[in-house]
Amino acid sequence: MAMLSTGPVTLKTNLADYPVTRALKQGKTSSPLVAFDFCGPPTAHDGFKPMVRDDKFDAGELAIITFLQAKAYGKPYVMLPAPISGRFQHHCIGYSTAHGGEIKPKDIEGRRVGVRSYAQTTGLWVRGVLKHEYGVDLDRVTWVTFEDAHLAEYTDPANTERVPKGSKKLAEMMFDGDVAAAILGADMPKDPRVRPLIPDPHRAAQEWFKRTGVIPINHMFTVHEQISRERPDVIAEVFRVLVESRKAAPPEALETIPPFGVEANREAIQLAIDWALEQRIIPRRLEVDELFDDTTRGLVP
In this structure, are 78 and 176 located in the same domain? Predict the structure, then answer.
């Protein structure tokens, strides 16, 4: 990235459409100082590898786990205290009754469970819930994966298995009995044979929220550290338009999107760090405050 001059800037940005970004993406919220070139792929997570491996974007969303790995491996990005998406994850793992009856969380021990990538953020949250809420020994599960991590430096742990390219899709493997369960999230098939592995998952998620106060974060807004270092005025303006865009979101859409601000997200970020270390997704313990810099840490909505 070249040195940034004073005056207006254009940021190459990877950002998808969410309730909190829609006003920004549609041009209803804008800035005289910052223009956004939304040049990322249609599916934002397809831009995560180019961002952390090739510095392809100046700014945009990153999965919280991808960002933790990026920070651990010294990539030049800094986080804004601006969650772009989040959700409760209890419902994101299911199984098929096509090859047997009901199974419970502990029943996946000693069996194979599918997930798109071991370092996928949804997988992190689901595994953490299974371990801490249902006593599942995660090391006794073989995690069947389809993709590597976004960070080239990372290697999946020993109890993972990579599906060869051209093989069945994950949902098909679940129906054929090749895996006992699958972490599919929004891609969970609408099929009467599919059951949630966690009983009554939405009620369980609400009870968990009452106890923890945490809405699991999916994606955070991030910027190249050079921009934050050289142009704190640009960072403040980026945050301002993100705040304005969030205010334009329907109130009901904000029920499962964490609020803005470092302190408002400290517990959720700390939990993501703890579980990422526990699941061997990051090589060292990170501190919440090191994910931000002096410019982004002080941003308040």
Answer: no
Three-state secondary-structure class, residue 163: coil
| Residue range of the domain that includes 40 | 9-87+215-291
Say whether both 97 and 192 belong to one domain.
yes
Separation CA 63–CA 249 (nearest Å): 21
Q: Tens digit of pLDDT for each residue in 72-110? A: 999 999 999 999 999 999 999 999 998 778 999 999 999
pLDDT digits 0-9 by tens, 8-55: 999 999 999 999 999 999 999 999 999 999 999 999 999 999 999 999
Residue-level pLDDT at 173: 95
Measuring CA to CA, which residue among 150, 8, 157, 128 is closest to residue 77?
A: 150
CA distance 233 to 301: 15
Q: Using alpha carbons only, how large is the chain's radius of gyration in Å?
A: 20
CATH code of 144's domain: 3.40.190.10
Q: Are residues 113 and 185 in the same domain?
A: yes
- Number of separate helices (H) and strands (E) present in the chain: 9, 11
Does residue 279 sit within a domain?
Answer: yes
Specify the number of domains making up the chain: 2
Strands 194-196 and 217-224 turn out to be unpaired
Residue 276: alpha-carbon gap to chain centroid: 12
The mean pLDDT of 200-225, rounded to a whole number, is 96
On whether residue 4 sits in a domain, the answer given is no
> What percent helix, strand, coil does the chain show, rounded to 5?
40, 20, 40
Q: Are 241 and 24 contacting, i.e. CB atoms less than 8 angstroms apart?
A: yes
Residue 203 belongs to a domain: yes
Query: Which amino acid appears at position 170 of this protein?
Result: L
Cβ–Cβ under 8 Å, residues 35 and 10: yes
